[in-house]
Amino acid sequence: MTGRIFACIAHRGGVVDDSALELLAAAKEIDATASLTAIAVGVGSNLDAACSSLQVSYQEVWKIANEALAYPNAELVRQALVRVLPANCTVLMPQDHFGIDLAPGLSIKLNAAFVPDAVAIDGVEGNSLKLVRQEFSGQVSAHVACDLSSGAVINIRPGAFKPETVVPIAGVVVDKSAGVGALSAKRRYVETMVAEASDVDITKHSVLVSIGRGIQEKDNVSLADELAEVLGAAVSCSRPVADAKWLDKSRQVGSSGKTVKPKLYLACGISGAFQHLAGIKGSPLLIAINKNPKAPIFQVADVGIVDDLLEFLPLLTEKARELRGVAAR
Amino acid sequence: MEILVCIRRVPDTSENEIELNAQGNDIERDELVYSVNEPDNYAVEEALQIRDRVGGSVTVVTVGNEEDDEILRRELAMGANQAVLLSDEGFDGSDGRGIATILKNFVQQGHYDLILTGVQADDGAAQVGGMLAAMLDYPFASLVNSITVEDGMLKVSREIEGGNREINEIELPCVLSIQTGINEPRYVGMRGIRQVASVPIPRIGAPDLGVEKSGVGQTAAKIRRVDYFVPVQGKGAEILHGSREENADRVLELVAANGGLK
Amino acid sequence: MVGTLSASQSADWIVSGRNLFLAIHALGITAFFYIVARRLMPLLHAQSDPRFDQPAKRIGKVLQFWLGQWKHPRYKFAGVMHILIFAGFILLALRAFSLLIVGVSPDFVMPGFSSKTGHIYDFVTDYAATVVFLCMVVAAARRIVFKPARYAVPARFGKSHTADAVFLLGLIALLMVADSAYAASHTVQLMRRGLPSEPLGFLSLAWVLQVAFGKMSLPTLSGLVASAYLTHEIAFYFLLCYRPFGIQFHVETSLFSVYFAKLTRGTVKPARWDVPDDRLDQVKSLGVKTFEDFTWKHMLDFYSCADCGRCADNCPSNAVGRPLAPRFLTIKARDYAFQRYPVFGKSHSGIALVGNVYSEDEIWSCTTCGACEEECPLLVEYIDKIVDLRRGLIDDGNVPQSLQKPLKALESRGNPYGKMEKKRAGWTKSPELQNSAKVKVLDGRDDADTLYFVDSITSYDDRMQSIGRATARILSEVGTNFGILGAGEKDSGHEVRRFGEEMLFAALRDHNTEAIKESGVERIVTADPHAYNALKHDYKDLPPVEHISQVIAREVKSGNLQLSPVADENKVYAYHDPCYLGRHNQVYDDPRTVLDAIPGLKRVEMTRSRDRSFCCGGGGLMLFYEPKEEERMGVVRVRMAAESGANVIVTACPFCMANIEDAIKVAGLEGKMSVIDLAELVDQQMIRAACPEELEVAICGGQ
């Protein structure tokens, strides 16, 4: 038995995060019959707007308004949640920078089990929830059993659970603010420093040539530049390339980089770690080129080519130039 | 500042090929090369840099067994002041909460101003740091990519989406989980490791830590890994099996049909 | 003058000036010895360096490189000039000494130089002084007007050295003029007084001055003699004492820098000469971090640099705009030594070199190609210093991130790619090899008399495995009973050592040495010049090592291996000498013999070939380093090949292959230039004697 299921929803400027519907889908897979509640914290009209959009998909929405929660500081949010959540419930949230910040500590304070980064739900057997996680950067999957007897906090991998088309319902917003009281924490939010804008905004391009560790060295980045130029695309990358400073951080696609919504995404030498894939939205045509036939990217790509990108890209560039009638330089 | 860094020994994913073993219940560990979890290594480097700036000492600790000696020694060679191994049969099979409980007991025996962990290890759980903080009632911040020491507190930035950074002030004592890329870890050569070969690494078991066996280990674990498996490819990608030329042509067809080559 | 006619015959000026001259002698000599003693101070506190062995060999080097000026003609014009100046100095030495002594002891005649010998000597040295003087004028004109590129000082290295150089040239010229003026005025004086005099060399400087002085009155002449003498003595001592303050110190130190020069090629000095390998752990600090960590010979090198710029002119790093120029590695250290150990004032020791004198990139930029050492006329050493500096950086953990991963992989997996040991022999299982040669793995179940040491890049890199296969087929074809170590082989450690990780190198070396000994082979062959150099020089007590080009050359010469004619008439081949096969090990001819044995093969030589070959970019760990440069060495080399008229580059090193293949693409010369390894070419051209199926060798499974 899962008890009540709660979904922690992130929102910004009154707009609810995509993860809200993913959590809904995950919750349904855990227990379609359990009572499902969305929780949104914040303050003012933004919070109200968020709750309004949530009540269209969630039967119950708990609104927690508190001045201290104007910015979602995980330390304060945890305090608030602990004060309002019932015992032995199941709490869901996405495995993103906020979920990583909040969930582990929350599970301790709730004395609940904690499952990080779940990618699939197998089902509930008595007091045991069976799920699937991945380890070793996605090279191997694991079946995991979670003891639900004292509740559970479960982080859901973003993008792992496809939201179903939602039939609008008339959910109810319940104001739980009173039950929270005064909040204080030893961590204080100061400000958000926005990343410097660079001359290329990859979020605005509809075709991206994206490179990963497989590009091997900085000098090979030019192979991607040349291909992108002839395709009319921009060059983006995964984390290792940005960490190595072969490309500016503004080119990084992923949960700690940019979120892109292209029509076509060429993943070259990218293994397919979920943190990277999390940055790709809108279901583009994903073509993967990778030397390793077992690379996880091939599980999510639409089209795959097992080849050495250092050989394949120049050939693509050459052929593309022929197609465009441009002489090779 | 007294800094504690919690580290872990993991298979080196970039140098290993992770495959299932013959029985199918674990990964093939025979020829794996192990090393310090990369984010933990960044955490140790950060601790060393803070210590060198403001004074104090750096202790590295891990929950494990004698195989973990090599990583503790590597971090000693890197410059840590001392290393501790928390080891007991009863710790085996602990889940994240169990590990955090063991560490909590260790922390409470000493006095540490700052506790660091790497943001996550090979299992992608990213949990021990946050759990430890909650157990100790210390404030916590994850995905930290810069630390500035101020009076009695730290100013830290967290890595959030879009390359943006969330700036927080956090009081000491606190727990932080460190993201890769926060610094450039120094190199540890063979000579350095040899020089610390005979430094004693104390080994502390359950009774000395005051850990209740019922709270840790296999039996207390709420999360249990049942098995490892490699999922059937299922839908997956349509792999092109033509020659390189043919594949390139096909790719360009798709590119043209989807908005490229304009 | 040295000759019979002593100065006393017109001695009044000498008598009156004697005390002055004596005082100048005393002052000059004392000052010189004091200065030299101060200069030697840091050497007394330096690291030990055993250079007192093999005196016969060392004297031989002195005769060849110091007296024989062997390296100077590599730059023809300057080289010939220097030989003339050097010869002049040597010849004039006795004359100068005599002249100095005469001021104090007017009757002095150099022993053995009375009468005829003396005459001839004086006559010859009249011309010597003239030649030196003219060389000074030409040299100054070169410096001021023609400004050869290699003398230029890039802004980041400080001010131009031209003023100082011209000043010194002027001083030497003055010395020659003073000497000649003395000879001329003294001769005129003697003649005027009706005393016997020696004829001066016709049209020599002295002769010209004699003509100019011919009509002067005796009192004027007297004054001229005295002032010429005084000028000579002051100029001589000024130069003597000034030389240790700059590049001219090489006049004194060159004899020693050549005598104490390194006798071996291709080697790297041990981390500490005075500490055995197994005790290195106990040493507090390894490598060169402060100036005092250098050995005394290295410090002597800093003093001995003549600032000729030939090293930097040939340095590939310098050519592509990396922060390194060997000349300034030396000049900066010398300036540092002068500043911290001044002749007048207190010495200071101990600040870190990297960060204050050198930048890290400067130290990591070196490919250890050896072009600098090959060029230096004073036999100044560079590679050992760079390796020592790298050892210091490694000891401090100060290693570029791009190198940390391959180093760690070398430690845990024995290869810089981090690939699994059991896959090291994977290349032998390729279908292309199965039908043409079977490669034994010497793991105890099988043995052979020859080991083919493959090394990491040829074992693991998809492209380079073809060199491995070609080598295996060649060895099979010529009937060699060979095998490989397979998973038991680790990286030779050649670059590991040259990048300063001495301990890791020692571990790799010990592992490989044991494996080689256990295999029982009697000889080793490799197609990798870095492995060749390591096994030959860095390893000890191994069976003899050869490079595959040497094996092929021998088989071709004996007729055992036949090569078919080239298929494509339009191909023009240029052989690129790999640094570790050519320059460091002087294997220049064997690869060329092989190429010339291919009927119809058109071969051209690049301008920079043999010991002047231009490094492709470096091997081993250098492939992982991300340098700051304006362009790639490989690209520069590929353009050199194109300029020589070639459209195929032949090389005999997998790292050269990697760099050049890449460079062809970067240079945009695909389709116009190609590259092939010597082994691959021979494999392609060799006429097979036996059918593959008849080859005896059996596979013994890998590990």
Describe the secondary structure blueprint for this structure.
The complex is a heterotrimer of chains A (329), B (262) and C (703).
Chain A: E1 5-8, E2 11-12, E3 15-16, H1 19-30, E4 36-42, H2 44-54, E5 60-65, H3 74-84, E6 90-94, H4 97-109, E7 113-118, E8 120-125, E9 128-135, E10 140-147, E11 152-156, E12 172-175, E13 187-193, E14 207-211, H5 221-231, E15 234-237, H6 239-243, E16 264-268, H7 274-277, E17 285-290, H8 297-300, E18 303-306, H9 309-324
Parallel strand pairs in A: 1-4, 1-6, 4-5, 5-12, 6-11, 7-11, 14-15, 14-16, 16-17, 17-18
Antiparallel strand pairs in A: 2-3, 8-9, 9-10
Helix pairs in contact in A: 3-4, 5-9
Chain B: E1 2-6, E2 9-11, E3 34-36, H1 38-54, E4 57-63, H2 69-78, E5 82-86, H3 96-109, E6 114-118, H4 128-136, E7 140-149, E8 153-159, E9 165-171, E10 174-178, H5 190-195, E11 203-204, H6 206-209, H7 217-220, E12 223-229, E13 238-239, H8 244-257
Parallel strand pairs in B: 1-4, 1-6, 4-5, 5-11, 6-10, 7-10
Antiparallel strand pairs in B: 2-3, 7-8, 8-9
Chain C: H1 12-44, H2 55-67, H3 76-102, H4 115-146, H5 162-192, H6 205-213, H7 218-242, H8 250-259, H9 296-304, H10 310-314, H11 316-319, H12 326-340, H13 360-364, H14 371-375, H15 383-395, H16 401-413, H17 431-434, E1 440-441, E2 450-452, H18 456-460, H19 465-477, E3 482-484, H20 494-498, H21 502-519, E4 523-526, H22 529-538, E5 545-547, H23 548-558, E6 572-575, H24 589-596, E7 602-604, H25 633-643, E8 648-651, H26 654-666, E9 674-677, H27 678-685
Parallel strand pairs in C: 1-3, 2-3, 2-4, 4-5, 6-7, 6-8, 8-9
Helix pairs in contact in C: 1-7, 2-8, 3-4, 4-5, 5-6, 5-7, 8-9, 9-12, 19-27, 23-24, 25-26
